[in-house]
Amino acid sequence: MTEPARILVVGGGYVGMYTALRLQRQLKAELRDGAVEIVVVTPEPYMTYQPFLPEAAAGSISPRHVVVPLRRVLDKCRVLIGEVHSIEHAKRTATLSTLATEEEGTGNIQLTYDELVIAPGSISRTLPVPGLADYAIGFKAVEEAIGLRNHVIEQMDIASSTRDPALRDAALTFVFVGGGYAGVEALGELEDMARYTSRYYHNIKPEDLKWVLVEASNRILPEVGEEMGKYAIRELRARNIDVRLETRLESCADRVAVLSDGTRLPTRTVVWTAGVKPAPVLADTDLPLNERGRLKCTAKLTVEGVEHAWAAGDAAAVPDVTSDEPGKECAPNAQHAVRQTKVLAENIAASLRGQPLKEYAHKYVGSVASLGLHKGVAHVYGRKLKGYPAWLMHRAYHLSRMPTFNRKARVLAEWTLAGLFKREIVSLGSLEHPRAEFELAAAPPKKASDNGPDKGPADGPKKGPASG
Q1: Which end of the chain is more exposed for a tag (fewer CB within 10 A), N or C?
Q2: Which residue has the higher pLDDT, 332 or 374?
Q3: How far apart are CA 189 and CA 198, in angstroms?
Q4: In which element (H, E) is residue 48 found?
Q5: 280 vs 272: CA distance, rounded Å
Q6: Residue 250 in this model has a pLDDT that exceeds 50
Q7: What phi and psi values does residue 122 have, to the nearest 5 degrees?
Q8: Rounded Cα gap, residues 355 and 141, in angstroms
Q9: What does the record give under GO molecular function (predicted)?
Q10: How does residue 450 score in pLDDT terms, banded at 50, 70 and 90?
Q11: Which residues are bridge partners to 109 per DSSP?
Q12: Burial of 62 (0-12, 13-18, 19+ CB in 10 A)
């Protein structure tokens, strides 16, 4: 009996999940006959729809509804929860670890394949800023979004109960670094949420909260155009959000954000959204990379100069055949990634059947961005929208792109309920340390002599999230 042709999909994000899903449909007969096997290796058992992270952080959408369980969707695929560390395509071999290999202590395993799809996505691009690793938080994963929501509400609790003015000011100062989609949308949604939440604190007013957006260039949201970017700045500043253009974060050590313009901001919250970079696994392959560390690809979504290797999304530098500018590449955004997966799956199926491949071609149609509840900007098909119409378009577009009918229905239901009832203002920070309460209860009782002059009997594992 001949071995099935194994298609290895590295990554279970938007590109990885949708490519595998489309391959399930394209290769239905081959999968049924055992001629083909699809293996998906991903660190998480779910796909996160990142455009909805700001709304999840603000409480408009439940966190479990912005993720899609891979095993349910990819029921014809073999899903391995693990991480690919290196790829030797010349030998058609990937080196990876899984949850089981870590428990067994047997080290990494080798997985052979016939066709390779590289879609590991991207990670936050950080800089050697003092204190960044110790105190900042990113905004790419659902865990980070919910952790940030809990943290913001916790800071309001601290400010409400402290008698130290300096601690209060630092707790109510929130610094966001990066004026792209992630930074602006996260800031807009969380500022909205915190302003609403402040009405339930007897000693915190909306004007007590200080929000700062730091952007190194001279504009924010470049994808929506200069005019809409300027409108977004005016809208944010009208809400008392301090927008600092052509400014960089120099340091955030010791809970003080030092900006390149000399400003020093004592703060307990620094959110880093200053761009992304390709996943590290790309550097540990024998495949060609460009100067930015992305895979060199053809318009047919094959890796340049290599057979049986494919890529799309953030990891791939795909030439834009619709552009008149020579050498221009497709932007690594969701709009291209959604459409690339369709061509990618069709081309892999065509390759296995000996049929000709087709090129990926899509002209960029524009962008939409949310600035908080009922506020947004859009530049689509040459038309510029702002305010409520742009916000409505933002929701409609991303709802249409949310994978599976199940998730679409749940998100729509939550939006409907959110419009009928008040916002949730609950912080569930203890979820980040679920064993803390039990550890405290199970710990042996302390003797009175064990407690120093500055310790109380309740000292022990903390329930809430770290304040950093």
Answers
A1: N
A2: 374
A3: 14
A4: strand 46-48
A5: 19
A6: yes
A7: -140, 170
A8: 39
A9: oxidoreductase activity
A10: low
A11: 96
A12: middle
* Average pLDDT of the segment spanning 130-139: 93
Supply the DSSP string of 421-464, one letter for each residue.
Answer: SPPP----GGGGSTTHHHHHHHSPPPPGGGS-TT--TT-SS-SS
Asked whether 251 and 129 are in contact (CB, 8 A), the reply is: yes
CB 19 within 8 A of CB 119: yes
**DSSP codes of every residue in 70-138:** HHHH-TTSEEEEEEEEEEEGGGTEEEEEEHHHHHHT---EEEE-SEEEE---EEE-----TTHHHHEE-
Question: What does each C-alpha distance from 284 to 16, 118, 180, 214, 302 come to in angstroms?
Answer: 19, 12, 29, 33, 18
Helix (H, G, I), strand (E, B) or coil at 46: strand
Beta bridge partners of 137: 271
18: left (phi over 0), alpha (psi -120 to 50) or beta: alpha
Q: What is the DSSP string of 374-424?
A: T-EEEEETTEEEESHHHHHHHHHHHHHHSSSHHHHHHHHHHHHHHHHSPPP
Contact 117, 16 (CB under 8 A): yes
Q: What pLDDT sits at residue 431?
A: 67
Determine the angle formed by the axes of helices 14-26 and 334-352, rounding to 10 degrees: 30
pTM for the complete prediction? 0.87
The whole-angstrom separation of Cα 143 and Cα 138 is 10
Tally Cβ neighbours within 10 Å of residue 328: 12
Q: What domains can you pick out in the chain, each with its CATH number? A: 5-124+277-352 (3.50.50.60), 132-274+366-420 (3.50.50.100), 435-468 (no CATH)
Fill in the amino acid letter for 243: V
Q: Distance of alpha carbon 274 from its chain centroid, rounded?
A: 12
